[in-house]
């Protein structure tokens, strides 16, 4: 580890000791319209609780109008309806989080999310801001659920466009709501539903302004149709071109984010919660070498520099919620000390305490070296992390700020599956 990097972190970072320290970060946001908050894993409690406090401050002090997360649109709509008062039946955030029933449920159905959801509901009810703050999922995986929602909404308003939706749904029916089955059929045997979902999306986009605005019906139709169209493309592509499917997914998240921004108009200001691999600018990593892009990169390219602020997160050691394989029950896994020569080790060597590092025009040149930066997914095997969990990154180009928590604890899922400490 080069001494000058550690020393630069010591000199440029500030210790985090209380929630009041988030003010330093909020001040740096200035008048940005997009604040992207990352995470080094989908199963770390402190990443969630920190984002909750930062999000509250952004809404209260900077008048941000919605939170967009790496989650499914239909499930997140349950939260949106709850916090905006459209849902008159559900009594608590804990109940509304039962909407998250697709693996990995722990990403959003966890104890840490309850605080934010209840706070947003109370904030909206207080009338502090004329525009009620929303909560949306911008991921791509809800192909079948989004098709269901399109049909349900079109039935509700007795639309003539219902036939186009039914034709699209009929095309998908033989695959029994199985994403893998459709992916193989479409990607290898060219038995796909491209024409049907394209027709559906075109029909809904053409009539975008004519659909009812009541309880965001028009936005729901638009984004659910967009999910169906892009998810079909994603699953059809992933079997043959996995790196290309990554780009389809992240471009979908950008498209969905922009649809929500358009819905809010000139008042639109987005707080985005996603993994570091999605929000940290891919052009500053080795992802660029593979032709991969991500949300952070594209949002930066689409907007003036001053409109986008990206914050990454990381830890040196601790515990995390993750699974041994895709679809398996979660476990509480031990996160070992960061690999020698990594960014996380440098942060630790600069002082074994929580800290905030803000990259500015004056200090960015101090952090221009490419260095391994740890990323933990929903599938995680600590014993093999040195072979694939570190993304070579130019940190001061990838982010505008970095939040480091020296030792972290596992997230607290609402559904307590078997979770032995390994």
From TrEMBL:
CDD domains: Ere-like. InterPro entries: Emycin_Estase, Hydrolase/PRTase-associated, UCP036794_erythomycin. GO terms for biological process: response to antibiotic. This is Erythromycin esterase. It comes from the Bacteria.
């Amino acid at each position: 580890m080069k001494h000058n990097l550690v020393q630069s972190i010591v000199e440029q970072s500030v210790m985090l000791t209380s929630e009041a320290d988030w003010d330093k970060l909020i001040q740096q946001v200035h008048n940005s319209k997009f604040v992207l908050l990352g995470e080094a894993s989908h199963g770390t409690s402190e990443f969630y609780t920190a984002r909750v406090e930062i999000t509250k401050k952004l809404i209260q002090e900077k008048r941000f109008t919605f939170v967009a997360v790496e989650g499914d649109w239909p499930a997140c709509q349950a939260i949106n309806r709850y916090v905006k008062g459209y849902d008159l039946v559900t009594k608590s955030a804990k109940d509304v989080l039962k909407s998250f029933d697709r693996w990995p449920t722990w990403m959003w159905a966890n104890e840490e999310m309850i605080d934010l959801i209840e706070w947003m509901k109370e904030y909206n009810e207080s009338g502090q801001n004329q525009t009620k703050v929303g909560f949306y999922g911008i991921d791509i995986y809800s192909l079948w659920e989004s098709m269901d929602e399109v049909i349900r909404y079109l039935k509700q308003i007795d639309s003539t466009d219902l036939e186009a939706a039914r034709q699209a749904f009929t095309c998908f029916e033989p695959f029994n709501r199985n994403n893998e089955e459709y992916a193989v059929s479409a990607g290898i045997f060219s038995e796909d539903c491209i024409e049907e979902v394209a027709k559906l999306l075109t029909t809904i986009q053409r009539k975008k302004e004519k659909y009812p605005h009541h309880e965001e019906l028009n936005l729901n139709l638009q984004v659910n149709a967009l999910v169906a169209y892009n998810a079909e493309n994603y699953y059809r592509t992933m079997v043959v071109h996995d790196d290309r499917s990554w780009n389809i997914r992240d471009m979908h998240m950008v498209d969905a984010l922009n649809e929500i921004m358009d819905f809010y108009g000139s008042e639109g200001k987005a707080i985005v919660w996603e993994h570091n691999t999605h929000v940290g600018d891919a052009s500053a990593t080795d992802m660029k070498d593979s032709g991969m892009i991500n949300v952070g990169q594209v949002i930066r390219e689409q907007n003036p520099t001053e409109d986008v602020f990206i914050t990454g997160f990381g830890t040196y050691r601790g515990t995390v919620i993750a699974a041994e394989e895709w679809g398996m029950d979660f476990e509480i896994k031990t996160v070992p000390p960061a690999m020698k020569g990594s960014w996380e080790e440098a942060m630790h060597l600069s002082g074994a305490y929580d800290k905030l590092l803000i990259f500015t025009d004056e200090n960015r040149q101090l952090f221009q070296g490419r260095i391994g930066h740890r990323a933990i997914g929903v599938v995680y095997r600590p014993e093999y992390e040195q072979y694939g969990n570190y993304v070579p990154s130019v940190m001061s180009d990838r982010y505008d700020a970095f939040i480091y928590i020296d030792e972290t604890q596992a997230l607290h899922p609402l559904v307590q599956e078997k979770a032995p400490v390994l």
